Amino acid sequence: MLSSILSKSKCAECKFCCVFRRQSRWETPLFPKEAAASLSEKYKNAKFRPVGDMFTIDIDGEYKTDDPEEEAPCFFLDSETGCMLSEDEKPVDCKIWPLRIMDKGDKTVIALTPTCPEINKLPAETVRKLVENGLGKVIEEEAEKNPDMIKEYREGFPVLSELDQQII
User: Fold this and answer.
1) Residue range 142-153: mean pLDDT, rounded
2) Which sign does the torsion angle of CA 41, 145, 6, 18 carry?
3) DSSP secondary structure string, 46-101?
4) Per-residue b/e over 84-109, b at no fewer than 16 CB within 10 Å?
C-alpha cells in the first residue's frame, strides 16, 4: 500500500518492521483466525496467540534474555529474501506499516511510527497526502471490520489524520 512512496527494495534490505524488541511486542501484526490457522499449517515454526477476535504472532519464546532491547524476528521473515508471505497472506498491519490506527482517547487517528528508517527520509507532507488521498479510508474501513487492530496511542507518534468518527 505504501509502495508508491517507499522502495520495496529498500524495505526488503532494512527489515526493521519485521523484528520486535521486547518492549515493541504491541506492534506485532494481527491476523484473522482463518489466516492464523492456515499459516500455522504452512509454517510449522509459527506460533500465534489470541488478541480479541484476531491472532498475533507469539514471539515470547523467541527471546533469549530479559534485555528489553533484544530483538526477535517475525516467523515469516527470511533473512535473505525478506517476508515469505504472499500479498494475500500478509496482514493489514504489515501492509500499512509504518502507519498505525490508534485510539487517542476522544478520537481515532492515523499516526506514523517514528522508528521506520526509510519513511523518516521523506517529507512528512508526502506521507500525509498519501493518507488523505485514499489510504486513510482503506485503513479506516479495515479498522471498522477489525477493531482489535486499533492500538492505544503512544506519545511521539505524529498524527497524520483524525477520523471523522471514533471507531472504538
Assistant:
1) 92
2) negative
3) --EEEETTEEEE--GGG--SS-TT-EEE-TTEETTTEE-S-TTTS-HHHHHTTEEE
4) ebeeebbbbbbbbbbbbbbbeeeebb
In angstroms, what CA-CA distances link 14 with 6, 77, 132, 148, 162? Answer: 12, 12, 26, 27, 29
Query: Tens of pLDDT along 11-27?
Result: 878 888 899 998 888 89
Element (DSSP H or E) covering residue 145:
helix 136-145
For the stretch 45-59, pLDDT in tens is: 999 999 999 999 999
Report how far apart the first and last C-alpha atoms of the chain are (Å, whole number): 24
